[in-house]
Structure formats: structure tokens, C-alpha cells
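[Discussion] Sanity-checking designs against the backbone

I'm trying to build intuition for which residues belong where. Below is a C-alpha cell string of 103 positions. I'd appreciate it if someone posts a full sequence so I can compare it with mine line by line.
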């Protein structure tokens, strides 16, 4: 499902996400505020770590069309600012990750 951001460009699932210092991942899903219809969060798939995480849409600095999203922070700050939430692309639901069982 495609959504639009405040600049009226669609953010497409599969769009490339880049921080100020390089590639972050791709858009897995776009979350909108049900009251305003505005994009509130992006679910990012980081293939190198096989991890999905959400970020606030206010981290988007600019878009190049609908396929490239540039963030306004570097990758190391992104890790610290991303929500600790997992996204299940099969159900479309968010949840808090279950910590690993003690060994």
C-alpha cells in the first residue's frame, strides 16, 4: 500500500533509505496517523542485519521522487533513535520484541 508524505510524493514500499552517511535499508511499510492521514512512521528493513525497525517520519530530510528517502541524521544516531518495535509484515501489526531467553 502506497502512502503520501507532506510533500505530496508517495513513499513506496521498497524505497531506498539513506542516512547522511550512507545506506540504511529499504521501506517495508508506511504508517499513517489515522486522524490526519499524514505519514507518521516508516518501517525500515535493514538487510545487512536482517532487522526491521520503525523510525519517525520527522527524520526524513528530503525525497528524490518516490524511490529514494534521505534522512537528516547519520546511521549511528539512527540506531539510537529508532523505536524498539518489530513489524510483522504478514499481519501488519507492531509489537515489542521478546527478549532472548536466558541461557
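Best answer:
Here's mine. Compare freely.
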Amino acid at each position: 500500500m502506497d502512502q503520501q508524505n507532506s510533500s505530496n510524493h508517495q513513499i513506496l514500499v521498497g524505497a531506498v533509505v539513506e542516512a547522511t552517511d550512507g545506506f540504511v535499508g529499504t521501506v517495508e511499510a508506511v504508517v499513517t496517523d489515522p486522524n490526519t492521514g499524514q505519514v507518521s512512521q516508516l518501517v525500515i528493513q535493514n538487510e545487512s542485519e536482517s532487522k526491521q525497525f520503525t523510525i519517525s517520519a520527522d527524520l526524513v530530510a528530503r525525497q528524490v521522487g518516490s524511490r529514494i528517502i534521505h534522512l537528516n541524521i547519520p546511521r549511528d544516531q539512527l540506531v539510537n533513535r529508532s523505536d524498539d518495535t518489530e513489524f510483522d509484515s504478514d499481519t501488519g501489526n507492531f509489537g515489542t520484541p521478546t527478549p532472548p531467553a536466558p541461557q
